[in-house]
Design goal:
The protein starts with 6 loop residues before the first strand and ends with a helix. It has a single domain, classed as Rossmann fold, CATH 3.40.50.1820. Helix content is 37%, strand content 17%. The longest helix has 14 residues. By secondary structure, it is of the alpha/beta class. The model has no long low-confidence stretch (mean pLDDT 97). It holds the Pfam family Abhydrolase_6. Keywords: Hydrolase. InterPro entries: AB_hydrolase_1 (IPR000073), AB_hydrolase_fold (IPR029058), Sec-Metab_Biosynth_Hydrolase (IPR052897). GO terms for molecular function: hydrolase activity.
């Protein structure tokens, strides 16, 4: 392992849990990194930021903080933690001060795919199981996509509405992986958020579930960030 930061903290997004990070976790630990996975409840942005800070508090040195999808909002909020040396966004939201996931998805570009999110049930959101494979995980095997669809974590509407107070990307160097076949967050929106954040950008052909379908590309970008800081 090259010199640089050795701790990595991974934050998952909505509808899924931290177990999807296993392929990335395994690649990084094999290369000598100490990897922690936050099991953020996705009930509220504040709660998820608190869960992330709790894991950051446990690190024995600086860490690269990584977020996928909604996890990008979480790391934007929690990443002001003194232990964060770099931020890595994986097909993720990167809200600015006063923005939420809701505000970022309020006005989709013409022709962009619309995620098949069902109407809220008791304050929680789910993706249409029948459309989960095509929208979220188009490049994963059908059996794996079906399991993800059937094991969805309810995503709290309060999490989507949670507003970022002081975006960490304004203070800390960031990297961004654009998933060019993403049907959840349009790639042009990903590029725009990455550019606004001043991130070092990589693009890889993959679905929204790129952390599972292209784990080597994700791990490589994390290692790039770790060695750069």
């Amino acid at each position: 392992m090259s010199t640089g930061v050795r701790n990595v903290v991974l934050v998952h997004g909505g509808f899924v849990d931290g177990s999807g990070w296993q392929p990335v976790h395994d690649l990084l630990t094999r290369d000598g990194y100490a990897v922690s996975v936050v099991q953020n409840p996705t009930l509220s942005l504040d709660g998820d930021a608190a869960a992330t800070r709790q894991i950051l508090d446990q690190q024995d040195g600086p860490a690269v903080l990584v977020g996928h999808s909604y996890g990008g909002a979480v790391i934007s909020e929690a990443g002001t933690h003194s232990g964060v040396a770099a931020l890595v966004y994986i097909a993720a939201f990167a809200p600015d001060k006063g923005e939420s996931v809701n505000t970022l998805i309020a006005d989709p570009p013409p022709g962009a795919p619309v995620p098949p999110i069902l109407p809220p049930q008791d304050g929680f959101l789910f993706l249409d199981q029948e459309k989960f494979h095509a929208s979220f995980a188009g490049d994963l095997p059908a059996e794996r996509a079906a399991f993800l669809a059937h094991s969805q974590v309810p995503w709290g509407v309060d999490a989507l509405a949670g507003v970022v107070s002081e975006p960490a990307w304004r203070l800390t160097p960031s990297w961004y992986l654009v998933a060019t076949d993403d049907h959840m967050i349009p790639p042009p929106a990903q590029r725009a958020m990455a550019e606004r954040a001043g991130a070092t950008v990589s693009e890889v052909a993959g679905s929204h579930a790129i952390y599972e379908s292209q784990p080597q590309a994700v791990a490589d970008l994390i290692k790039q960030a770790a060695s750069a800081v």
